[in-house]
Structures are given as structure tokens and as C-alpha cells.
Amino acid sequence: MVKGDPELLGDHLGVFTARSTESKITKITQDGGIVSAVMIYGLEEGLFDGVIAAVADPDDTEEPWKPRPVVITDPDEVLEAAGTKYTYCPNVSVLKEAVRSYGCEKVAMVGTPCQIRAVRKAQFCPIGMRHVPDKIELLIGIICMENFPYEGMKTIIEQLCGVWVREVAKMDIGKGKFWVYTKDGEVKSIPINETHPFEGEPCHVCTDYCAELSDLTAGSVGSPDGWSTVIVRTEKAKGILDDMVDQGLLEVKSIEEVKPGLGLVQKLAQVKKDKNQKEIEERKELGLPEPGKVHESL
Prior knowledge:
Blueprint lengths: L5 H4 L4 E7 L2 H4 L7 H11 L5 E6 L12 E5 L22 H6 L6 E5 L1 H12 L11 E7 L7 H11 L7 E7 L2 E6 L4 E5 L24 E4 L8 E5 L2 H12 L3 E5 L7 H24 L13
Parallel strand pairs: 2-4, 4-5, 5-9
Antiparallel strand pairs: 1-10, 1-11, 2-3, 6-7, 7-8, 9-10
């Protein structure tokens, strides 16, 4: 594994690009299917007894693509949560339920950088989360520049892309565009800068692009289509990934062998830090609250 700039990526052991070797995963997941593969492996091997993820039902006639947080205990159900939903899902809200209602002792959670920070804060200061912090086994972070409220995402899809949200089969952000793939095989896209008015307000004071407090981070940025960039941060995550590679469940390449590579990840991380730190400074001048910082590192 190669190492990048910790000032941009957060503390980490190394970075590589990878994809699942199982076609049942890669044919329906986003990019390399790393998050789904780790969740399935962890549940099958007993490393986790519960996984918190976001599930949406594109066939829901009322609110398709509106995700809800779920506690998954059956590895066969993991792929129901596959794919990125570009809108909020309160995954942290079911963390207590996973422990107290499902009886989970080893919980893994997938989350955006802000959600990963919320869980670390709960571990540090577990007010209202008694008996929960020591049950958190692994945090999987998702690379995130910004997110959208559900109605904002729906507006992007229906008004800007011209596609009914109920006709969407998959969404993606890449190569400077917001992409929509329909169930009929059509592909629509708009420049990403046209989506900025619909971003969630809290995203504008977040300087964490790579989920710096997670155990491992995954995302498409930096890797070719069909692969995921993986940032390994803890020995626990490294051990899981090494075992998966040894068992032939993951195909791995050096991030230095692929395009666009680690440089793009670091460039976009710098963009988010600079842009949103400027927003924070402007808010401080106006006397508005500064976003809290509990952890600077794991």
C-alpha cells in the first residue's frame, strides 16, 4: 500500500484500489462493491452480528430512492442496501436499536464523514448511548463532497435531468457530472455545478472529504470505472481486508498503477477543506457557531 498526505486524507496505513471478485456483488453495486463485500464477509465470518446501512426501494411508488436506515443481520440481505443514495439517511439513529433491540454485540456501520464523526463523538462521550460504544466493531466511511436533502435530489433528477425519480435505476457522481441511469437503459447527466443550489446546508461547514475517523474509507474517486479507492486506517480494517484478499474475495491493485489515481482524491479533499473552511471563517465573523471538533485523529 502507498501512503498519501495525512493532512488531506486523515491518519491512514495505506491506500489501494480494489474490487470484489464476486459477480453477484459487482453486477448491482456501485463501483468495486467493496462496502458490500466487507459487510457480507464480516457477517458470514462472525466478525459482525449486525450491520447498519441505508436501504431504498426504487419500486416504491410513493417515495422511491428515499433511503431508510436498517440493521442487517443476514448476509443475504446486504445487497438490498447496495448502491449509493445521494441523499440523507439517518443511519446513526438505529445504532442504539441495533444493540438494545437486536442484541448485537459487534456492530459495523456504513456512513458519510459526518455520520462517522457523530459515532466517534458518541464513543467519546456516550450521553444517551450507554452500553453502545463498546459494541461498535467497524466504521466504514464513504468519500463525500456534499449531500442532498431528498427533495433536492428529486428536483435534480426530475427537473434538471428530466427523468421521473421512479424511473431511476442508478445514480452516480463522477467526471464532474451527476449521472442518472434509467430502468429503460437511458443515461442522463448534468454538470455537477448545477446541483450546488440543492446541497444540504450543513455540508458547507464540513471539511472532511474522506471520512477521516473511519476504520476504512471507500469511494469511486481516484479509481477506474468498476473499482473502488480504499483508504485503510486501522489494523482491524487491514486484517479484514488482508483476509479477504487471501481468500480471493477481493482483487487489489496499487493506486499508483491506475488513473486518475490518488492525486485526484487529494486534490478534491483539498478543495473541500479550503472551500468550507472559508465558509466557517465567514460564519465566525458573523458570530455564528463554529462546527465542533471532538476528535482530530483516531
